[in-house]
């Protein structure tokens, strides 16, 4: 199980998932999407891509996070930000 990720893909924007009930950011780190709580400094690694994550997007209420990669075996994954 992945415990911690170092680095960030500067080509993919950081997504602010903060609401009145939580303080979260999402960003791409190679093949992993990271949801980071910047108050508690806890990190949740969302693993599932076979290639580097190229784009991130979120629903208006920040409940759903979409990640996509391109290339061989490209994928689009929709993540529940409350459950991972």
Descriptive terms for the model:
WD40/YVTN_repeat-like_dom_sf; WD repeat-containing protein 66; WD40_rpt; WD40_repeat_dom_sf; WD repeat; 0% helix; four-stranded antiparallel β-sheet; three-stranded antiparallel β-sheet; 84 residues
Descriptive overview:
With 84 residues, this protein is mainly beta. It has strands at residues 15-16, 24-29, 32-37, 42-47, 53-58, 64-69, 75-80. The strands form 2 sheets. Strands 1-2-3-4 form a 4-stranded antiparallel beta sheet, with no helix packed on it. A 3-stranded antiparallel beta sheet has the order 5-6-7, with no helix packed on it. Strand 2 (24-29) and strand 3 (32-37) form a beta hairpin. The two termini are 14 Å apart. WD repeats lie at residues 46-84.
What class would the helix/strand composition place it in?
mainly beta
Percent of residues in helices comes to: under 10%
Strand content: over 45%
Q: What is the number of domains? A: 1
| Strands ordered across the widest β-sheet | 1-2-3-4
WD repeats: 46-84
Keywords: WD repeat
InterPro entries: WD40/YVTN_repeat-like_dom_sf, WD40_repeat_dom_sf, WD40_rpt
Protein name: WD repeat-containing protein 66
């Amino acid at each position: 199980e992945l415990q911690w990720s170092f680095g960030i893909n500067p080509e993919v924007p950081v997504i602010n998932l903060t609401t009145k009930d939580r303080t979260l950011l999402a960003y791409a780190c190679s093949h992993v999407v990271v949801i980071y709580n910047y108050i508690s400094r806890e990190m949740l690694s969302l693993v599932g891509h076979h290639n580097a994550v190229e784009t991130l997007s979120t629903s208006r209420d920040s409940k759903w996070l979409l990640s996509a990669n391109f290339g061989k075996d490209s994928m689009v994954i929709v993540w529940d930000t409350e459950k991972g």
